[in-house]
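Hypothesis: this fold can be encoded by more than one sequence.
Test: take the C-alpha cells below, design a sequence, compare later.
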C-alpha cells in the first residue's frame, strides 16, 4: 500500500530530521517564518526545490503548478492561487529573491507542444497551459522543441513577474531579485538565464 510507505517515511522523518531540528522548528513557530526566497516550480514529482537547493525548513517558500507558470497580473476576483502565493511571499514575508525554476522532460510543456497539433480535452489543464501557448513558435521538433519551450516558459514566467506592480517596484528599488533557472533531470545540471549571456550552467 502506497500510503503505508508514506506513513513509514513520515515516521522516519519524525525520528531523524524532525528530532534533530526540533530547536529550529520551535524557533520557526515562535518567531514565525522568514524565508529569503520564493521558488516557483513545476509540480513534477521528479524535482524537489528543497532537496535540490539543500535548504533548511523556513528558508524557501515554494509554490508549484503545472509547467511553473506565472500568470500575467490580473486584478480581478478570480481564484488566483499562484498569484496569491507570490503576493504573500513578496508583500507579507518580504522575500529577497523570486526564483522561477523550470525543468527538462516537463509533461506540461510536452502537452503544450503536442496540443498545437492535436487538441486534447481537459477540464482545467489546457486552460491553465493556454497562457503559455504562444511560445510554441519554432521549427524545432521532438526533444529539441520541448527544451526550447521549457526555456521559453521560464523566461515568459519571469517576464510576467514584472507585470505585478509591487514586484516591479521592489526590483527597481533593489529590495528584490528575480532569477530564471532550468534543471536538467538527466544530467543533474542547473542553468541560469540572463538576457546578456543566455542560458549558462551554474
Ligand atoms: Zn514540469
Amino acid at each position: 500500500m502506497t500510503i503505508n510507505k508514506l506513513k513509514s517515511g513520515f515516521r522516519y522523518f519524525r525520528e531523524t530530521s524532525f528530532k534533530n531540528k526540533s530547536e529550529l522548528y520551535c524557533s520557526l513557530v515562535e518567531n514565525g517564518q522568514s524565508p529569503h526566497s520564493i521558488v516557483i516550480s513545476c509540480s513534477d514529482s521528479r524535482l524537489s526545490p528543497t532537496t535540490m537547493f539543500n535548504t533548511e525548513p523556513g528558508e524557501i517558500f515554494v509554490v508549484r503548478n503545472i509547467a511553473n507558470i506565472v500568470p500575467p497580473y490580473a486584478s480581478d476576483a478570480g481564484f488566483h492561487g499562484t498569484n496569491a502565493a507570490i503576493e504573500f511571499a513578496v508583500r507579507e514575508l518580504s522575500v529577497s529573491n523570486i526564483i522561477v525554476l523550470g525543468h527538462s522532460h516537463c509533461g506540461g510543456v510536452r502537452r503544450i507542444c503536442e496540443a498545437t497539433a492535436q487538441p486534447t480535452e481537459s477540464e482545467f489543464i489546457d486552460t491553465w497551459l493556454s497562457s503559455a501557448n504562444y511560445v510554441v513558435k519554432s521549427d524545432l521538433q521532438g526533444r529539441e522543441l520541448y527544451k526550447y519551450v521549457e526555456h521559453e516558459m521560464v523566461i515568459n514566467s519571469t517576464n510576467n513577474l514584472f507585470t505585478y506592480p509591487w514586484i516591479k517596484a521592489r526590483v527597481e528599488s533593489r529590495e528584490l531579485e528575480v532569477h530564471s533557472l532550468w534543471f536538467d533531470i538527466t544530467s543533474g545540471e542547473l542553468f541560469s538565464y540572463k538576457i546578456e549571456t543566455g542560458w549558462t550552467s551554474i
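The pocket of zinc ion is lined by residues 42, 44, 67, 103, 106-108 (CB under 6 Å). Strands lie at 37-42, 60-65, 97-103, 177-183, 190-194, 198-201.
Hypothesis status: open.
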